[in-house]
Write a structure and sequence with these properties.
Elements (H helix, E strand, L loop, with lengths): L1 H21 L11 E8 L11 E10 L2 E4 L10 E8 L3 E9 L4 E12 L3 E14 L2 E16 L2
Antiparallel strand pairs: 1-2, 1-8, 2-3, 4-5, 5-6, 6-7, 7-8
Length: 151
């Protein structure tokens, strides 16, 4: 556990020092990019993450669409929708997914984009379960993450 937290902090420091020494660079779009993300959860949010747990996932950007990789497989086919707003060095994203067990996850994400190679950010994760007529919120967690681009 502690190794994962230290790894996330080191990745963040590398990104900051890289940005400080790189000088002026042109900022490009996130569209078409994928990032490997290491997410540290400070609370429980369904099966996505537990308290003080590190989750390995990926973030995909396609046009204005945003996806969380672990929720992109067939299990989550009942509904997954996400979009992002790119503001140059930062972006905001929203993502919602419903699985076959009628569990719903809502993500609100705020990120700093460091030269398209590294991203740092926070997430608010809300977990809901189906209850006769509508979804009831069961869990909520805050999370911090660092991501590295690989495509």
């Amino acid at each position: 556990m502690m190794k994962n937290v230290i790894f996330m902090l080191l990745m963040g420091l590398v990104a900051v020092f890289t940005s400080a020494t790189a000088g002026a660079m042109e900022i490009s779009s996130l569209s078409g990019k994928t990032y490997k993300a290491y997410i540290y959860c400070t609370g429980k949010a369904g099966d996505f993450c537990g308290n003080n747990e590190v989750v390995n996932d990926r973030f995909n950007f396609d046009g204005s669409d945003f996806e969380i990789g672990s929720m992109d497989d067939a299990l989550w086919g009942y509904g997954a929708d996400g979009d992002y707003n790119d503001n140059g060095l930062s972006f905001n994203a929203d993502f919602e997914a419903i699985n076959e067990g009628l569990e719903k996850y809502k993500f609100t994400i705020r990120v700093i984009n460091l030269f398209d190679e590294f991203i740092l950010g926070t997430m608010e994760i809300k977990y809901y379960e189906w209850d006769i007529i509508d979804f009831d919120k069961e869990d909520e967690a805050d999370a911090y993450f660092v991501g590295a681009g690989f495509l």
